[in-house]
């Protein structure tokens, strides 16, 4: 395939290769002659912006009569944010939800000095400083997630011979306290539903949340066509990038279908208000529900892990299933968990010691 001119950067070209990779080039004039230089491959971390930077270096040195730079694929001066950008650009090929993670991680990198530091100079102490810094406002599990992502960036840089070690490997993770898992008791559920019953959109949003355990973004992306005749409901898990199914009662399905008709929704419209790529706290249903949660369940002084939020609806779904002795593997399937350990948090809520199940087993094969 012929070289393609960059739409954004002057003098930068790319060429698609048969193996699916992409080769980058720059062109400039030297002694009134056109010069072409290959900068490197997409798989090696090369991007248009880097090529443009190199071209500017060359043209500047030509104007000043200085020695031209040596081209090496090991980019000594690239910052950690430069490499993070390249990592997520590469990852986007395989992960549709990459943009959300990229924004989440890069925003933290930009706010810390690590973002502008040359990647080769970053140490364990730098990573620990970032960990401490973001730990002041984020939950431990989120801090661990961001550090894991930074570790993945370093691993990718090692694979591409940009660095030779990963300082994240010797950084200890923050202990995550899952002892407290806030969920709504039945009387609290009734109290919440009574409070919002006059707002049908809010009411059915909460009902689906309590009936499927779907996350906020999952519920906001439900369409009328996702409701099936057998009372199942198609859901999309944006965190795990996968489709799965939940279930509604006949009565609830009928009520929601009437709500859809009354709202004038078409089969491919979203049932609920969808605010797209806005952050969690800017989502419409967060802004509507959080003040209600705070009044009903979050008195002043309530600790973060004990506060009721929209995500508490998901915990309530799983917790109430466990309390009602639903098999843990069934809960795992309904929650669309990838890891059984994520589901095992709810196992301790089961009020059964197993004697009823053992008794039923014995009765099935014992003759009197």
Automatic annotation (TrEMBL):
Transmembrane segments: none annotated. Residues 78-158 form the Core-binding (CB) domain. CDD domains: INT_Rci_Hp1_C (cd00796). Keywords: DNA integration, DNA recombination, DNA-binding. GO terms for molecular function: DNA binding. Pfam families: Phage_int_M, Phage_integrase. GO terms for biological process: DNA integration; DNA recombination. Residues 179-359 form the Tyr recombinase domain. Belongs to the 'phage' integrase family. This is Site-specific tyrosine recombinase, phage integrase family (INT_Rci_Hp1_C domain). It comes from Arcobacter aquimarinus.
């Amino acid at each position: 395939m012929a070289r393609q001119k960059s739409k954004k950067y002057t003098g930068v070209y790319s060429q698609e290769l048969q193996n699916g990779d992409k080769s980058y080039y720059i062109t400039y004039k030297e002694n009134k002659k056109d010069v072409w230089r290959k900068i490197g491959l997409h798989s090696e971390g090369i991007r248009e912006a880097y090529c443009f930077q190199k071209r500017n270096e060359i043209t500047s040195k030509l104007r000043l009569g200085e020695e031209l730079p040596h081209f090496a694929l090991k980019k000594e001066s690239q910052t950690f944010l430069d490499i993070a950008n390249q990592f997520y650009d590469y990852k986007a090929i395989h992960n549709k939800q990459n943009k959300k993670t990229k924004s989440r991680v890069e925003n933290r990198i930009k706010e810390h000095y690590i973002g502008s530091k040359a990647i080769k100079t970053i140490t364990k102490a730098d990573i620990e400083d970032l960990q401490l810094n973001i730990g002041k406002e984020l939950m431990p599990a989120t801090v661990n997630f961001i550090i894991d992502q930074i570790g993945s960036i370093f691993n990718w840089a090692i694979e591409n011979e940009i660095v030779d070690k990963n300082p994240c490997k010797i950084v200890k993770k923050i202990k995550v306290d899952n002892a407290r898992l806030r969920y709504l008791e039945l009387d609290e559920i009734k109290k919440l539903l009574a409070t919002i019953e006059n707002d049908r959109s809010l009411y059915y949003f909460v009902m689906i949340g309590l009936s499927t355990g779907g996350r906020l973004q999952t519920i906001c992306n439900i369409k009328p066509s996702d409701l099936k005749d057998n009372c199942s409901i198609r859901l999309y898990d944006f965190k795990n990038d996968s489709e799965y199914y939940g279930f509604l009662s006949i009565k609830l399905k009928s009520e929601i279908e009437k709500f859809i008709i009354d709202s004038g929704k078409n089969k491919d419209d979203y049932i609920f208000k969808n605010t797209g790529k806005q952050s969690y706290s800017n989502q419409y249903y967060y802004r509507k529900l959080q003040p209600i949660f705070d009044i009903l369940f979050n008195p002043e002084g309530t600790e973060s892990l004990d506060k009721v939020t929209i995500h508490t609806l998901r915990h309530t779904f799983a917790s109430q299933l466990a309390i009602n002795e639903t098999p843990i593997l069934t809960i795992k399937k309904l929650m669309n968990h990838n890891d059984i350990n994520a589901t095992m948090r709810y196992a301790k809520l089961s009020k059964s010691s197993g004697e009823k199940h053992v008794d039923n087993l014995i009765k099935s094969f014992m003759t009197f």
